[in-house]
Amino acid sequence: MTIQQLESLLNINLPSKEQTILLDDTQITVKRDDSIHSIISGNKWRKVKFQLLDALENNTKHIISFGGGFSNHLHALGYYCRQLNIKLTAIVRGDYSQNLSPMLQDLIAWKSDIRYVNKLTYQARTDSYLNTLQTEFPQALIIPEGGSSHFALQGVGELISELSQEYDYIIAPVASGGTLAGLIQEVSKQSLKTKVLGIGVLKGQGYLEDLVNDLLPKEHASSNWQIMHDFHFGGYAKKNAELIQYCDKFYQQHKIEIEPIYSGKLFYAIELLIQNTYFPKSSRILALHTGGLQGTR
């Protein structure tokens, strides 16, 4: 099976469109990865597509991955696995068993196995707990939280070749680092002058940069990127009335749905940067809408 056949099987609509809007009287382009599928969320397909293809080619019957109770990554993965007849074990941070989120209700409907773990166990998902899972399920494919692995970089990087022009800035939200790393690597591969900007959606100065650097191969390390840390509104999934009102106003003006966890913080940041004349005049700016709308239910 090719990646194109897999995308056809799952009804993935790529390439996603580029849509021009005005923010504070400045023209920017939105890469609408939120629109590639009615259920699958934006960049969640790009980050796991090659891992899924590898799983199918190796006849993998079981996938394990990690996330919170509203995780876009687990939601998308649960859907893929149901469609491809692969068992999913979702390791969920916190016990939602008596108060299921809409995301977890979907996973149950898709026959996923859910394991609730405490915060301490979840924090060990990259070392001791990971080893425990690998011992318990030696035949399973374990995908990192958010799908951010070295596999993710190739899938995200394909986005660059879909673009209609070379941009001066590509801007994306950052949480687990895979999307930004994929963009940086492909810009480096193609020797583009594009600057890649990340908008940190959680408190993590230094931490987020380390996540990105750990994913980047040395030959594609670059200095032409930056993560901005002034727009997280207090931390991951933190929001206030101003941000919620901004998301509502953005939809009214542009008819593009955004939410306060990822895309709302992204566009809020871009608009404020424009107002503060961060971008040189006539800059070509691309904002990557990574989806995530289901997480607000």
TrEMBL record:
Question: Which residues belong to any copy of the Tryptophan synthase beta chain-like PALP domain?
Answer: 27-291
Keywords from UniProt, A to Z, are: Pyridoxal phosphate
SUPFAM superfamilies, per the entry? Tryptophan synthase beta subunit-like PLP-dependent enzymes
- Note whether Cell inner membrane occurs among the keywords: no
Q: Which cofactor does it need?
A: pyridoxal 5'-phosphate
Q: Which domain of life is it from?
A: Bacteria
Any matching Pfam family: PALP
Q: Please give the family membership noted in the entry.
A: Belongs to the ACC deaminase/D-cysteine desulfhydrase family.
Q: Please state what the protein is called.
A: Pyridoxal-phosphate dependent enzyme
